[in-house]
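Office hours follow-up: a student asked to see two folded examples consecutively, so here they are.
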Amino acid sequence: MINRISSLLYTLFVFALFTRCSGETTIIDNPDTQDDVNHWIEQKMRDQYLWYDEMPERETLNFSLEPEQFFYSLLSKKDGKDRDGGHQYYSTINQKDAASKSYLGDGYSFGFEFQYYKVTALNKYGLMVLYVLPASPASEAGLKRGDWIYTINDKPVTGNLAELTALLDTSTPKTLKIGIAERFDWAISRTASITARTVTDNPVLVNKTISLDNGKVGYLLYNHFTSGPKGVEDETFNNTLRGAFAQFKADNVSDFVLDLRFNGGGLVSCAQLLATMLAPQSALGDVFCHLTYNNKNKDNKKTLYLDPARIKEGVPGANLNLSRLFIITSERTASASEMIINGLSPYKEMELILVGDSTEGKNVASVTIDADPYDWELHPIVSYLSNKNDFSNYAGGFFPTPGFVCDDSKQGDYYPLGEREEYILMHILNYIAYGNFAKSRSQTLRSAGETNLIPLYNSLERKKTNGAAILPADFYRP
């Protein structure tokens, strides 16, 4: 867990790690001067920014601004969304030396994600655990999904977000003592000490085959589109993904559940790999997505395909030739996750059913631009994302399939992700087995009015991408 500033830097570092733009760069004699850095920023943005034609005229720009302020003065309102009383841009900038920690293995972590609530019915604040990484301090302390943290270092969790994020900052390997309740309305039953350390965050968090009377169901909880812990050349995580699909194939699964409820995006190349293994076999070799750049590119549209060769790289994977795919979504589902939905939707040989809540609606991609001797990295939006049918108009997000809206925040007991009793998965398995989307067994439910749980902050905000991340090979330059 890290504070807001560290969270932003973390997200920016992930993009810096994922992508690099090559090409000609104008080197200025005195690159350390603010004016010269800003001229470099302006040059790169006019060249590659998707909405370059909406940037202010050069003579109106203030080149004496701090580089970060100058960068944001260039952006179009089409970039990002209005929310929380302001505008959130998807394009971002960071200093190279500031992006020093990440969940990819270089930073420290307690190993859990959480939703921070105000529990008005009890006049208290708490953190509800969303999931726990294996072999992490949190898992070793016995923390599990659905636990509530009500005290930190023997003091109650307060409504002060800055205070909370400072406590949970993992820029150093600090130790916390936490007080844990098993439900939001129960008293603290135990305490535990957790010390932040380096933790591997493999996006393949849960993969298993579930047997039903009428067939086998594959389940995959995939939490971010990352190829490996050491960057884009590392296939460690992709090989885990391929291996999981080889096992699903061996198990002869007939239905599949892809859980993207926590997945805020990542690499386009990882989305291409996953989609290729999920698509109906008849679609292999056909279009996965189009990347449409600004008209300064000599060829401003690049096509990525459902490429069978990607399955066989490294550890061999498998295409499942599915006739039906369930995707669990939430408001945290964004970017490369939405590429999966959009890219597979034209292939009617496979029924696509979205279960859960509406997605974020990020239909754009970014690339990282850096060059020595400049001390800054730019992450501009450079491309629209569209599917085989050239559909890209999903900035409002994808909605659940009618009849499949399912809110897992309104349950009383949280079961492990991937278990039959887990709220959303239970509904899906019941539909597969019996043809109706209703509870198949007794489970305690609660309404928002009964609990008065007010969400204040979600730790997954730090993993959201500003747009699907494009590798240099995917990026056309003038």
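And the second, which I mentioned at the end of office hours:
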Amino acid sequence: MDHDLELLTVGRISVDLYAAEVGAGWDEVASFTKAVGGSATNVAVAAARLGHRAAVLTKVGADPFGGYLRRRLAEFGVDTRYVGTSQDLRTPLAFAVLDPPEDPQLLFYREPTAPDLTIEPGDVEEDVIRDVGVLWVTGTGMSAEPSAGCTARMLEVRGRRRHTVVDLDYRPTLWESEDAARKRIGSLIPQATVAVGNRAECEIAVGSSEPDEAADRLLEAGVEWAVVKMGGEGVLVATEHSRSIVPPRPVRVVCGLGAGDAFGGALVHGLLAGWDPVTTVRFANAAGALVASRLLCADAMGTEAEISALLQE
């Protein structure tokens, strides 16, 4: 096997079903549009759209939706060699009602558990874990076994090589308690070189939603880059030697879903290119803004030319 991957993401996958009527509530929606979903999966799609050799370690069900996801990922240019199949579980669904568009309401169908939470250490070769340019793991992957043990083992094998990214990715409905999330997500940070999260996710991971304090705690835990998303106030990016707030790119929001995943794929782009933190986050902000101005998520990921054009406006 060749080890030509630049990015391996680990975690959630789903079929996302977006309400066709923007601004309508659950009772008013008449139809939904099907798309690829799941944070780690969409980060891989975003990076592939930017020209990188990306794969996702995840699992789908042995059902038509699983086949749909595998086919669409291949069409997006994402390597599907590590997309496994659970014979006993169904592919997850996530319904999204765009009310309001900037903060859609979500309803997850992942019971009794999701196939992506059943990944195991043997599902990917250890030399791939060690050698891939960017390894991207998520907080959600720690919410259940055997995924939590698999994530911990991968980080142990990785040994904090550059670039090891922890996406704090906290979804309350997928956890039994905040205490469990705090302990397990927090345990990932000392093994990462980059940590990414919004204020609420930082509160869970390091006990503070105040951006500078959260960045301090992430850096003290050992990361090289602390990236704290502040919504309309921009993004704080901090290292041992510098700290900057990168302002947001103003756009008319059509759908807020997927902007964070586009940010992630663009962050990977900057890491692989060797860009400095501010240049990387500025590009990632523009990538997120572009997706927020479009419907759907994976289908809306921008190319480098599109993101660069937005930056130049």
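Two things to take away from it. The CA atoms of residues 41 and 167 lie 12 Å apart. The chain has one domain: 7-312.
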